[in-house]
Amino acid sequence: MKPIRVGLLGLGVVGGGTYAILERNREEIGRRAGREIRIIMAAVRECDHEKAHQKTGGAIPLTHDPMAVVNSPDVDIVAELMGGIHPAKELVLQAIARGKHVVTANKALLALHGNEIFKAAHAKGVMVAFEAAVAGGIPIIKALREGLTANRIEWIAGIINGTSNFILTCMRDHGDSFDDALKQAQDLGYAEADPTFDIEGIDAAHKLTIMAAIAFGIPMQFDRAYTEGISRLTAQDIQYAEEFGYRIKLLGITRRTARGIELRVHPTLIPEKRLIANVDGVMNAVLVKGDAVGATLYYGAGAGAEPTGSSVVADLVDITRMATSDPGNRVPHLAFQPDQMHDDVVLPVSEIETSYYLRIRAYDRPGVLADITRILADLGISIEAMLQREPAAGEERVDVIMLTHQTIEKQIDQAIAKIESLDSISGSITRIRLESLGSA
């Protein structure tokens, strides 16, 4: 049987990892796929030509025109590993229009334009595979789309950005400031010169958008995801959380509720006894709660040449196995049949329900706590735990830290506004959401 022929768009970190895996494990991959998978050409930027030539040993032709790969009659599968929105979107849509299957690691492209891309692929009868777009080498897409298909997914909570997790680990373990931890991440190559997508939760929100669509059978809705990053966190808050028995992680959380779907990324207190709370450094982990199976945890490298390349190759194998099958018998792109997708309401953050950590800087005066607790009680917010620090020598202000029971976010918003208006309160209140994550 003739080989499946792959054209790469991009031969950087992920493309290089993909090429290396296919070369090293060619025989075993072919035995699993049922036929050889062969990369026959690659598109690279002119400035990257020499590096790409070294990676491949000159074994495949290189071009500086990605459309030449897409339009080549010899290419069966286009692997888009270049990143970015443009020209990646146009190249993927052209590949689909030419009747070619597509593999992509581009989470931003799918989160923003996945609905259009999957619709085009369905109409043309081709597959778009994207395991590498979420959590690197962790097979979370296959788990959600196939392994957990018997379940009604209740919620997902994931550490899905290694850069932010590395920064938070440094802040906790060494007491580093955010700026110092970020600089260390940049020095080690974990963070870009412009780290905005990582530290402000945008990268995690792209990935969460994809997982929510598969879990709940809803369209991609990145524009409705609430996103809050870690740049305002302090080592002090991380220490206070530890004293209560919690750790702070940047989590992507999506949950099915009676009122709609929660879709949010933000720093979150997690009980330290949870497995996911102990995922440190650049590692990723995704916790999925299904009604039948309960909580399942998926852990591994969320980035890197060969971890991500591993997911790309797995997608190439899947397509190779199923390329000749009737399109109606293939696993749907988003797990649910296209005509069974529901446009459920995605809740604004003001309507989510969770618990909260509040750090209040107050003057050390009689009656201050009574005023704070009265405001909370009037809004139906109950306190689970509280810690008050003694003032430092010569200092009139103290930190008061409270953990609340579950409440609607808009109630907390009102409470914070009223407490901050008190004469006895100094500055803004720090609010961090808290999730118990069931019994996982």
Looking at the structure, what is the overall shape? elongated
In the CATH hierarchy, what is the architecture of the largest domain at level 2? 3-Layer(aba) Sandwich
Give the assembly state of these chains.
single chain
Q: Main β-sheet, in a few words?
A: 11 strands, mixed
Radius of gyration, whole Å: 24 Å
Helix share of residues?
A: 25-40%
CATH fold name of the largest domain, please? Rossmann fold
Distance between the termini: 47 Å
Would you tell me the overall average pLDDT? Answer: 96
Total individual domains: 3
Relevant terms:
3 domains; eleven-stranded mixed β-sheet; alpha/beta; elongated; Dihydrodipicolinate Reductase, domain 2
Q: Topology of this protein?
A:
Blueprint: E1 4-9, H1 13-24, H2 26-33, E2 37-43, H3 49-56, E3 62-63, H4 66-71, E4 77-80, H5 88-97, E5 101-104, H6 107-124, E6 128-129, H7 140-147, E7 153-159, H8 162-174, H9 178-187, H10 196-199, H11 202-216, E8 226-227, H12 235-243, E9 246-257, E10 260-271, E11 283-290, E12 294-301, H13 305-322, E13 353-363, H14 368-378, E14 383-388, E15 397-404, E16 407-408, H15 409-420, E17 430-434
Parallel strand pairs: 1-2, 1-4, 2-3, 4-5, 5-6, 8-10, 10-17
Antiparallel strand pairs: 7-9, 7-11, 9-10, 11-12, 13-15, 13-16, 13-17, 14-15
Helix pairs in contact: 1-13, 2-13, 5-6, 6-11, 8-9, 14-15
Q: What is this entry, summarized?
A:
The chain is an alpha/beta fold. The chain contains 15 helices and 17 strands. The chain is elongated and about 85 Å long.
